């Protein structure tokens, strides 16, 4: 369709969704990832995919890959609840469903599985161990990406999908603020396979998301991933050409607390999983025994800490051949569970804008500018809503006043 060449920095969910969408639109795309392999570091477990995310995946993936993404997802319904530390209900709701979407618009997806689906067919287009150090723009409107190993790549546009520590953003918008939200999270997995699983986790804790809150706004978040068939059966039925790692049912367990209630970051991030689990048990002393049994049942090797950060909303960047996507522009706390969905929406919108430009022969920079204006609206609305809910429920730091647009 077009000689347009797109460089995507970052092979996370948003960057790969964009790459899939662009390739499907006939646009040349290459992806560069600083990690040594796709499984180099743990990036989390269960992801809630809502209607926005489902529609984005339907748009950017092939029909068979989209069918596989739905077949490998849990469908826990739309029930959400907030309980106190004695498991008394404080607030409950059931989100509306959309019968035209898998799971009614509420999917519980395993992050690694989704990423493997998004990587399918890109073995020739993803370069690992490629840490961006800078980019240069040229008089003819093209851009060159420079990597730490000395290699370079040339393209017509460059998209920074490289996360909250984005090297692209650091050059494009050096004054942009990413703030410490004041929360530290410990992510872990509780295996749900075997005859004891039903007795371990009460059925009313297996909804779309359950928050158990305790003193000083400590909390435990619980969310299941329960497969409806094996990975092998799903692949055979929907996309035999895609290879997926095997997995079994589990419960994501997220403990969170204000940073001043936790060890220093230097200490926290050095602790092994078993010590992190002990820390959670110490922090939930006196809570309902069912919650403490769930914490104790976590696979110690699965537990890792996260420092929650949030972008401070801004007015965007000057038009040109470089743009941002996902956490690189609108990182947010997980308080409303839409970070991944917002990145997927970015990929859907940007794919459409660039495909339209390629078809019409219009400048790609105009497509990037239209994408930016649309994305900043819904992206920072999600950042603000996440920050407000996080502050109200679990003591997240409030956002400062928006940063001024850099002159």
UniProtKB/TrEMBL annotation:
<keyword id="KW-0503">Monooxygenase</keyword>
<keyword id="KW-0560">Oxidoreductase</keyword>
<keyword id="KW-0285">Flavoprotein</keyword>
<dbReference type="InterPro" id="IPR002938">
    <property type="entry name" value="FAD-bd"/>
</dbReference>
<dbReference type="Pfam" id="PF01494">
    <property type="entry name" value="FAD_binding_3"/>
</dbReference>
<feature type="domain" description="FAD-binding">
    <location>
        <begin position="5"/>
        <end position="227"/>
    </location>
</feature>
<dbReference type="InterPro" id="IPR036188">
    <property type="entry name" value="FAD/NAD-bd_sf"/>
</dbReference>
<protein>
    <submittedName>
        <fullName>FAD-dependent monooxygenase</fullName>
    </submittedName>
</protein>
<feature type="domain" description="FAD-binding">
    <location>
        <begin position="315"/>
        <end position="384"/>
    </location>
</feature>
<keyword id="KW-0274">FAD</keyword>
<dbReference type="GO" id="GO:0004497">
    <property type="term" value="F:monooxygenase activity"/>
</dbReference>
């Amino acid at each position: 369709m077009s000689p347009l060449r797109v460089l995507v920095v970052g092979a996370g969910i948003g960057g790969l969704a964009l790459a899939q969408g662009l390739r499907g639109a006939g646009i040349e795309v290459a992806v560069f990832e600083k990690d040594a392999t796709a499984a180099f570091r743990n990036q989390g477990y269960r992801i809630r995919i809502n209607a926005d995310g489902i529609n984005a995946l339907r748009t950017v993936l092939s029909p068979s890959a989209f069918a596989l993404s739905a077949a490998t997802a849990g469908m826990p319904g739309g029930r959400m609840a907030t309980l106190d530390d004695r498991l008394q209900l404080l607030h409950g709701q059931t989100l509306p469903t959309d019968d035209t979407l898998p799971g009614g618009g509420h999917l519980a997806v395993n992050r690694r599985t989704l990423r493997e689906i998004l990587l399918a067919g890109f073995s020739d287009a993803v370069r690992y161990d490629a840490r961006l150090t800078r980019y240069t723009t040229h008089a003819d409107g093209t851009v060159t990406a420079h990597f730490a190993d000395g290699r370079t790549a040339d393209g017509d546009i460059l998209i920074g999908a490289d996360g909250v520590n984005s090297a692209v953003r650091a050059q494009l918008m050096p004054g942009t603020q990413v703030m410490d939200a004041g929360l530290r999270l410990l992510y872990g997995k509780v295996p749900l396979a075997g005859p004891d699983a039903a007795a371990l986790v009460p059925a009313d804790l297996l909804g779309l998301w359950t928050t158990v809150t305790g003193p000083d706004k400590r909390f435990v978040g619980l969310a299941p991933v329960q497969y409806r068939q094996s990975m092998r059966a799903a692949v055979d039925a929907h996309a035999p050409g895609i290879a997926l790692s095997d997995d079994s049912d589990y419960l994501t367990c997220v403990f969170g607390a204000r940073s001043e209630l936790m060890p220093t970051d230097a200490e926290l991030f050095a602790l092994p999983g078993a010590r992190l689990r002990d820390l959670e048990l110490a922090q939930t002393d006196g809570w309902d025994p069912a919650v403490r049994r769930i914490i104790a049942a976590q696979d110690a090797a699965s537990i890792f800490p996260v420092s929650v950060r949030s972008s401070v909303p801004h007015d965007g960047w000057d038009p040109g051949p470089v743009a941002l996507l996902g956490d690189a522009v609108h990182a947010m706390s997980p308080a409303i569970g839409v970070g991944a969905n917002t990145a997927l929406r970015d990929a859907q919108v940007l794919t459409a804008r660039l495909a339209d430009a390629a078809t019409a022969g219009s400048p790609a920079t105009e497509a990037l500018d239209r994408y930016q204006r649309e994305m900043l609206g819904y992206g920072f609305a999600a950042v603000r809503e996440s920050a407000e809910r996080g502050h109200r429920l679990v003591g997240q730091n409030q956002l400062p006043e928006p940063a001024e647009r850099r002159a």
